[in-house]
Structures are given as C-alpha cells and as structure tokens.
Amino acid sequence: YSQLRLILGDQLNASHSWLRQPCEDTLYVMMEMRQETDYVRHHRQKVLAFFAAMRNFANAIAHKHDVLYLTLDHQGNKQQLTDNLDMVLQHTKVQDFAYQAPDEWRLDEQLARYSPDGVSVSMVDTEHFLTARDALGDYFKDPNKVLLETFYRRLRKQYNYLMEGDKPAGGKWNYDHDNRKKLPDKVQVPTPLVFDNDVSELDVLLTKQGVDSFGEVDATALPWPVSRKQSRELLNFFLEHGLANFGRYQDAMSKRCWSLFHSRLSFSMNSKMLSPREVIESAIEAHHKQPDVINLAQIEGFVRQILGWREFVRAIYWDKMPDYANLNKLQHERALPEFYWTGDTKMACLQHAIRQSLQYAYAHHIQRLMITGNFALLIGADPVAVDAWYLGIYVDAIEWVELPNTRGMSQFADGGILATKPYASGGNYINNMGHYCKDCHYDVKQKHGEGSCPFNVLYWHFLDRHQQLFANNQRMSMMYRQWEKRESNEREAILTTANEYLIHLETL
Ligand code: FAD
Ligand code: SF4
Q1: CB distance 286 to 303 below 8 Å
Q2: Keywords in UniProt for this one (predicted)?
C-alpha cells in the first residue's frame, strides 16, 4: 500500500471523498480501543452503539476498499491509538499516513503530535459540518461576544435555507414565541421507532475485556440506529411523525414517552452516519411538500437546532479549547449526589429524567438543561463531575458538543460565553412545562419549609450566593428585585430550608 488512512469511530461518513473511488494502493484502518472505552465511564449502550456502527461501516466500505479493522480483542491491539498506528505502519511499511480532522481536542492533540519516523503525515477535512472548525472569527470580531442568533442568521443567508431573497421566509427569524408549549393530554405522541439490534456478541466481548460501564441494556435489542440505512429510516420516521409538532412541544416534558416529538438523530449525526445538510434539507423539503402540516414555526425550530446550535457550540469549542475544559466561573465544588447514577430520589422530575437516561442513554434537551443540569447548577456541583456524567451517560455524547452544552450553557462555568444568563429556575418552570409535579413527594407551590420543592429554595439560594456576579446582569435584575422585596424572615426561611436540603442532598 502507498497510503494508510485512519477512520475514527465518529467518522462514519460514507460520502467522504476518500471513499468515492476504490483505490487499490490505499489501506483503511479502524480500531476499537480501550483508550476510547475508558477515557470516561460510558453508558453501556453508548459503547455498544459506537462499536456496532463502526463494524457495520467497515463491512460496508470493505466491498470496495481494503480495510484493516482491529477488534477490541485483536491479538496485536495495543489499545492506544498511536501505538496501534506504529504497529500497522511498521507491519505494512507504508510511508504515507492520512487522517480526518478529529472533532475532539484530545484526539486532535494526540494525532497532531504523532510523527512516525520516515512517514509523511497529513490531515483532511471530515466533510461533515457546514462551518469550518475555526469559523467563530469569521462571524464575530470579538470572540468573547458571540451570539447564537447572529451566527444562525448568517448561516441561514449563506446556505439560503428558509429564505425569501435576503429576508427570512415568513418574515421572522425566530418562532420561539409560537413554540414551546406544554403537552396537552389529548395530543398523541408517536411510539418511538427503535431498531432492536442484536449486539450480544459485542456485549460479551466488553464483559470479557473488563470494560467498565453503567446503565441498562438489552443487548439483544439495542434501540439505536447502527448503520446508515437505519439512520435514514429514523430520519424518515421523524419527518413523518415528529417534525409537524417539533417546535410546538420542543420544551415539553412528560412521562408519557421518552422522546416525545424529538428526532433522536444526534447519535447518527455525531457518528457522521447522517450529514447535517441532508437532515436539514430533507426536513425543509418535507415542509415544502406539506406546509400546512409542517408549518414554518416547526421547521424553523428544527433547522435552528442543527444549523444554529450544533455548528455554534462546535465553533465555540474549537475557539476556546483547551482552557474551556477547566473553566469554573462560579467556583462550584460539590460532588454530584449518588442518585444521578440510580434515579433513586423523591424528586419526581429528577427521578424520571435520570431513570430514563439510564434506561435509554437518552434524554431530550430540556430534561438535560432544566432538570438534571438545572439541579446540578443550583446545588453548586463541580463542573468536572457534571461534565463526566453527561459525557458518559448519553449515546450522543462527544466532547465537542457535550462540553459547551454542559459547562457553558448548563453550568455557566464559562462565565457567559455561550449563554447570556444562567439556565437556572425554580419548580414553577418545571411545573409549567411538564407533568411531573402532580406525582411528586414535594410541593411545587410551597416556597420553603419541609416538603417544599427543592428547586424553589435552591433557586433563591443560588441567586443569593452569586449576587455579586449577577445583580448587574440586565436579564436577571428583575429576579433580584423580587428577592429583595421579600420580607427578611421569608428570605431567611428560604435560605434555611435550602441549607438543610444541601446538607441532606442524598436523601432528597
Ligand atoms: P432534537 O431535539 O431532535 O434536535 C435535533 C438536533 O439538533 C439534535 O440531534 C442535535 O444534533 C441538534 N441540537 C439540538 N440542540 C443542540 C445543542 N444545544 N447543541 C448541539 N446540537 C443541538 N448534544 C449532543 O449531540 N451531544 C451531547 O453530548 C450533548 N450534551 C448536552 C448536555 C447538556 C447539559 C445539554 C443541555 C444539551 C446537550 N446536548 C448534546 C444538546 C441536545 O440536548 C441534544 O443534541 C439533543 O437532546 C439530542 O436529541 P435529539 O437528536 O432528539 O435532538
Ligand atoms: Fe421537581 Fe419540584 Fe416538581 Fe417535584 S415539585 S417534580 S422536585 S419541580
């Protein structure tokens, strides 16, 4: 062979130009490694989904290309990326090595530092995203004053998505106001399409190799799509059953279904089995075909997530790393309560969001942000622990997207680079958007004292302890005024209950 090409586990892009033509003198290499199973403790379904998808991808491209696939138990597998590359390069005597730009800092550094003797090394694009890695500077003069809305509008124009000339289709850029409703009892939710993939062989392999993981799994029926074909099926299912209500119930929370009208396409996109362009363009096409069923508010809400948020958090990640991973503006240090790994808490909202995450390796955005994330923020949990939890538990969790969402958007540890104010709320928000409170041990209407909703008192405790930092934030001044208007004995009662709860977190 004259060239060795590495394909990482989240680079399963079958449309990559590398793969267009069969090339007899090129060898592709893919590897299952302990380096990847062990950098954080993952949900079992996440490890299984990645390995199963990698195996399917390797088998699919092997029809036209030569592929060396190192399984976890392959005799020569050194379980570390560059050691394995050394071994393959020595064995094949190839003098030209190429890889696709990794999306994670960790792997990018590892490969950037790799310079095997006598071998030329080059990096190519993954041909997946709609913006370049270092796009932030193209869109903002001051990279510390960035706004999703500005970034998103520029991209809408650049790609001509949902545009009428240089104006947004329908005359509005943002339909959030029409969206984000609570889920009424009478609205039917689709039964999620699951794939029941039998990955029991892989599961046995993980056990034999002693891979540590957590979460529930039925390895004879893994629900996640693990091939391009299944990913396309999930996309079509979403277009048919989810998109028409996507924006409307995007922020709704309910025990009735684990994914409501969400697409669950994040794993397929993050592993690159689906490209963001094809997802956006298929959704826009579905809207054009049935504009009365899939109205502008629904399609705009969906496009904003992928064209806007997904590209935006990636741009922030690459602009701010590696420092971003150590930011802790609020100096939070508390350990996460044990119930994050069991769901055993009397708080109905947390119990449901955590148990569902353990069961499916999935929770939708508002569960992540306003339930588990909000609680971690209010109690002052150490962002290192919070990151490790999110990076481990979700099937779609890869650092470039997990870190800005968790440390930035959810924990405000970046001091407001990603969000202009912390996503902190009391029980009222959860009650307004979800069905949890009526079945809860705690009373969402009670403002303090035993039995009061922990979110209520912890919210004011959070504002009170960070007054210096937030009192001048325009978007929060109204809440501070409300706090100051209260009688001092009421404020004291709230803080006393909050302190009690903080001491006894594990029993909440
Ligand atoms: P849908 O609701 O159907 O949305 C469609 C798509 O939009 C998603 O598949 C995703 O690709 C994209 N999207 C939506 N919101 C975001 C966002 N905030 N950032 C980036 N992309 C977005 N997403 C991940 O892909 N991996 C993560 O590790 C991850 N960690 C998160 C941690 C926290 C604390 C929070 C608050 C959010 C996190 N997100 C993460 C973003 C978002 O919650 C998930 O992308 C979404 O829930 C995936 O489910 P879905 O495919 O059904 O999304
Ligand atoms: Fe969650 Fe509070 Fe509602 Fe209970 S009362 S479900 S803790 S918001």
Answers
A1: no
A2: Lyase
Given the CA of residue 439, which atom of ligand 2 is nearest to it? 6
Is the domain of 436 the same as that of 479?
A: yes
Helix (H, G, I), strand (E, B) or coil at 442: coil
Does residue 226 lie within any of the structural domains?
Answer: no
Q: What is the DSSP string of 228-273?
A: HHHHHHHHHHHHHHTGGGTTTTTT-B-TT-SSTT----HHHHHTTS
Nearest CA to ligand 2 atom 2: 453
In angstroms, what CA-CA distances link 462 with 184, 419, 496? 32, 17, 13
Backbone φ, ψ for residue 2 (5° rounding): -100, -20
Distance 221 CA to ligand 1 centre (A): 24
Tokens of residue 276, six digits? 């963001």
For residue 368, what is the domain's CATH number?
1.10.579.10
Residues 22 and 109 occupy one common structural domain: yes
Would you say residue 75 lies in a domain? yes
**Ligand 1 touching residue 394 (CB < 6 A):** yes
Name which residue sits closest to atom 26 of ligand 1, judged by CA: 397
Cβ proximity of 196 and 236 under 8 Å? no
Establish whether residue 261 lines the binding site of ligand 1, counting it when its CB lies within 6 angstroms of any ligand atom.
Answer: no
What is the atom index within ligand 1 of the atom nearest the CA of 386? 34
Q: Which atom of ligand 2 is nearest to the CA of 427?
A: 8
CATH number at 63 reads: 3.40.50.620
* Residue 234 resides in a domain: no
Number of domains present in the structure of the chain: 3
Same domain? For 282 and 259 the reply is: yes
Nearest residue by C-alpha to atom 8 in ligand 2: 427
In this structure, the answer to whether residues 389 and 451 fall within a common structural domain is yes
For residues 304 and 359, membership in a common domain is answered with no
Longest dimension (CA), the chain: 79
Contact yes or no for 398/128 (Cβ under 8 A): no
- Judge if 111 and 85 occupy the same domain: yes
Residue 483 lies in a domain: yes
ipTM of predicted assembly, 2 dp: 0.99
* pLDDT values of the chain reduced to their tens digit, one per residue, 508 residues: 999 999 999 999 999 999 998 888 999 999 999 999 999 999 999 999 999 999 999 999 999 999 999 999 999 999 999 999 999 999 999 999 999 999 999 999 999 999 999 999 999 999 999 999 998 888 888 877 889 999 999 999 999 999 999 999 999 999 988 888 999 999 999 999 999 999 999 999 999 999 999 999 999 999 999 999 999 999 999 999 999 999 999 999 999 999 999 999 999 999 999 999 999 999 999 999 999 999 999 999 999 999 999 999 999 999 999 999 999 999 999 999 999 999 999 999 999 999 999 999 999 999 999 999 999 999 999 999 999 999 999 999 999 999 999 999 999 999 999 998 999 999 999 999 999 999 999 999 999 999 999 999 999 999 999 999 998 898 999 999 999 999 999 999 999 999 999 999 999 9
On whether both 186 and 255 belong to a single domain, the answer is yes
Mutation choice for ligand 1 from 176, 194, 305, CB with most ligand atoms inside 8 A: 305
pTM over 0.90: yes
Domain that holds residue 109: 3-124
